[in-house]
Amino acid sequence: MNQTAPQPKLHWDIFCRVIDNFGDIGVCWRLALNLAQRGQTVRLWVDDASALSWMAPVGAPGVQVLAWTTPFESHGVAPGDVLVEAFGCDIDPEFITRYTSNLQARDQAALWFNLEYLSAEDYAKRCHGLPSPVMSGPGRGLTKHFFYPGFTSDTGGLLREPDLLSRQTSFDRATWLGAQGVAWTGQRLVSLFCYEPAGLSALLQALAADQVPTILLVTPGRAAAALHRVLDEELGFQAMFNRDKTLSFFYLPTLSQTDFDHLLWACDLNLVRGEDSLVRALWAGKPLIWQLYPQADDAHHPKLGAFLDWLQAPPSLRHAHHVWNGVHPTPPWQPTAQLISQQQWPEWQATCLAARQRLLQQHDLVSQLLAFVANTP
Ligand code: TRH
Known about the structure:
Layout: E1 11-16, H1 23-37, E2 41-46, H2 52-55, E3 63-67, E4 82-86, H3 93-106, E5 112-115, H4 122-127, E6 131-133, E7 143-147, H5 164-169, H6 173-180, E8 188-192, H7 200-209, E9 214-218, H8 222-233, E10 247-251, H9 257-266, E11 269-273, H10 276-284, E12 288-291, H11 300-311, H12 315-325, H13 345-360, H14 365-374
Parallel strand pairs: 1-2, 1-4, 2-3, 4-5, 5-7, 8-9, 8-11, 9-10, 11-12
Antiparallel strand pairs: 6-7
């Protein structure tokens, strides 16, 4: 469901600091693109745009990427109508000073959002949309608003571009795989995009032990490195591991975000991580196992629990998530082959499709942002 009411054409400034990995810029780029697809004009200020060279190699009409430097060089750019601070970054005071005086001159309220991380935990519902009065600095007296993405209609929703379903419908799996050089003759396909999951060895053993031939499509970077480590240091010494070569490996280059989506649509099971790839795997509508960004205080454990509850995951899918994330390691008496097997596929598939269907009934994140903006005097 997309909100279709005509929207004012506004100028947006999105600010993004790349802390770690690719999620910060990945989410901000998708947000910028999504806004531009709906007629908005977007400047994306980012302190490290290097990943965009492969994530979004051709850019997008309506989106301008600018270097967010320290000290801030605004290059004389006047602030737009809407400000978005992604993931708790702070916009420079010079820019806020100009934004504030523009608002005062036009007698307008601030359109200033603090875009937060995605979680299925209850706090996202409680905090979504809350005002945050600015008490000091050049923006003193203005009000920002918290914008929490989420999985239910009482949150800010998920990023979903208007043409997603039509693009999925016209996607041809065999053609796309051929173009990537994957020699696919009907094998089960599993994508691997992860950190260093506790359950990697268990999953590889389970896939190799299953009767169905599987190709693991491995993304570069941490996922490929983690795989090599497990193969070299653990499984390489086990004579029985993958003896029949049921499991084979295909190493991918970095893909554009568009092709990363295609990868998820092409696979039968997606192993994803972080934030943006989880959302994309949900839209792919295939079984998925999510690795959360590991946090020192195990804050990712309740986050995983909340997601599995929302997903209405059956016990086998919960178990796979727990093993994958090292939440409850596989008890020694449980054969790892049970972690994943062909019998579970229909149930996992039905669960993920039902979740996708629930999400499709809700407003997407950009529709909600636009509605919020349209309703602000
Ligand atoms: O890279 P991530 O692990 O990012 C994470 C999360 O954002 C998390 O919330 C944050 O706390 C942590 O970093 C520090 O995973 P994520 O969010 O899935 O982002 C990956 C992006 O990279 C996503 O937009 C998809 C994109 N991508 C491609 O475009 N091409 C590729 O080939 C690959 C492997 C990824």
